Every structure is written in C-alpha cells, then in structure tokens.
Amino acid sequence: MNISKAEQRVLHVLAQGGALHFERAANGKIRDIICFTRDGHVLADCTLDVFERLRRRRFVRSRSGRPYAITRAGLVSVRAQLDNR
C-alpha cells in the first residue's frame, strides 16, 4: 500500500508507543491534532490532513474517548526504520 513519508513517520512514532491527542470543535469534529512520542516530544509532521488519511485507512483508532493509537493494520503497514538516538 502506498503510504507517504509523513504518514510513515507518524505510524512509526505510534508503533513505538506514541499517541495522537485531539481537540474537538463545538460541532464535534476534530479541529486540532498533536502527535506525542513516547518521550513526550511533539512530532511536527502530523497535520490534520495526515491524521484524516490514517483514520480513513483505519491505521489509527480511538477507544472510549482516549487518544488515538495505532491499530493492527497500522502495525502491519508501517516499514521498519532505524531509531536514530
């Protein structure tokens, strides 16, 4: 499946234990999304457009109002990357 570089970065961060925190507007739609790594840093590549594509493909999911996390389909589709620490 074709996944953009920004989507790969977000999925990689989520696979390592990160989370997507969101804010809803008054009408219930998500208006802001922030991707946190497991260390608490913010990933700048995560935009609302990238998030919508990941959600549409069912690579991320929120359960019971909690932050969005990666799904099994997201784990399968993400490519392995070296962690540059």
Q: How does the SSE layout of this entry go?
A:
Elements: H1 5-15, E1 19-24, E2 30-36, E3 42-43, H2 48-56, E4 60-61, E5 69-70, H3 72-77
Our measurement of the CA-to-CA distance between the termini, rounded to an integer number of angstroms, reads: 28 Å
Strand order of the largest sheet: 1-2-3
Radius of gyration: 12 Å
Give the structural class: alpha+beta
Query: How many strands appear in the DSSP assignment?
Result: 5
Mean pLDDT: 89
How many distinct folded domains? 1
* Fraction of residues in β-strands: 15-25%
Shape: globular
The run of helices and strands is HEEEHEEH
Largest sheet report? 3 strands, antiparallel
Word description of this protein:
The chain has one domain. 31% of the residues lie in helices and 22% in strands. It is built from three helices and five strands. It has helices at 5-15, 48-56, 72-77, and strands at 19-24, 30-36, 42-43, 60-61, 69-70. The strands form two sheets. The protein has a three-stranded antiparallel beta sheet. The protein has a two-stranded antiparallel sheet with strand order 4-5. The model has no long low-confidence stretch (mean pLDDT 89).
